[in-house]
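Progress note, project year one: complex with magnesium ion.
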Amino acid sequence: MVDYNTVKLSDGPRGIRAAVSLLKSGDPVAFPTETVYGLGADACNDRAVAGIFEAKNRPSFNPLIAHVANLEIAETIASFSDSARDLAQAFWPGPLTLVLPRKPDTGLSDLVTAGLDTVAVRIPAHPLAQELLNAFGGPLAAPSANPSGRVSATSADHVLDGLRHRIAAVVDGGQCEVGLESTIVGFDGDISVLLRPGGLPVEAIAACLGQEMQRFKGGDITAPGQMTSHYSPDAGMRINASAPQDDEIWLGFGPDQTGYRGLNLSVSGDMVEAAANLFSHLRELDALAKTEGGKSIAVASIPKTGLGLAINDRLQRAAAPKD
Ligand code: TXA
Ligand code: MG
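Model obtained:
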């Protein structure tokens, strides 16, 4: 394990140049995307990709998303069906990942696809991610920039909290706008399959394709990082609560839930605001739970439509027993 003196890089051209040079030499560098911070490495360099697994302490059977600057590069590594191209044109750059048949001889490290014959591809919308990908030139493998199983990072300081000394650098792009990982879509023939709810509502995808999405039910496609316990704070969690008990602090949602000790995802009940606040509020409440002598976190119930589907998915995993 390399012991890095992790640096925070500024968002200007110098920061980007420094990040590219570290990435070219095979070092892991975290960078902002509109969803969450990614921990990037040269997707064509086995040693660099292995470094990501090491830094995150991640079970190595989990494949990674290849982030690319544009559709032309995406088409060099994956085969797009008509439906896949429709989604790419409608939602890229943005919080959508497509799992597609991998092309032969792409130069991608087998560690990125974990030996599967599909590859997950995404074009992120964050201007710094775009700059970095354009300057780097090739695909960057990038899982979320947090230790495996922990809450994803939505600011450069969150990245440092979890990965200081384990990665070479983090490019500081402030807070992530979306705050939830990308929605992952695969295909079963021409039928779109939801592999992970995320920052792009499934309703938008279904409307674009004129077709309801199938829910992932296991089978051929590898379950995408869907370990039951994931995104976990140390504190215990109880979801779909109507009010906190004595030994609980509160994660509320909506206007009538502001009187309790804790935080509120969105007082106005806005899903976009709630998604953007989710991981940072969980972090803050986890710290508060510790200072208050080991309290648990009770979470208000959140509607299960639009971004609420992904928010509920993350909350369920965060609340699941840790083994
Ligand atoms: O928003 C995001 O998607 C963030 C930012 C950094 O882009 N990235 C992210 O990566 O969430 P990660 O590694 O934490 O989650 C990627 C998921 C994993 O659960 C993995 O199993 C799944 O994508 N995945 C990758 N390749 C796959 C494939 N070929 N088939 C099925 N699932 C795949
Ligand atoms: Mg993750």
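The two ends are 26 Å apart (CA to CA).
The CA atoms of residues 77 and 175 lie 30 Å apart.
No further modelling is planned for this target in the current period.
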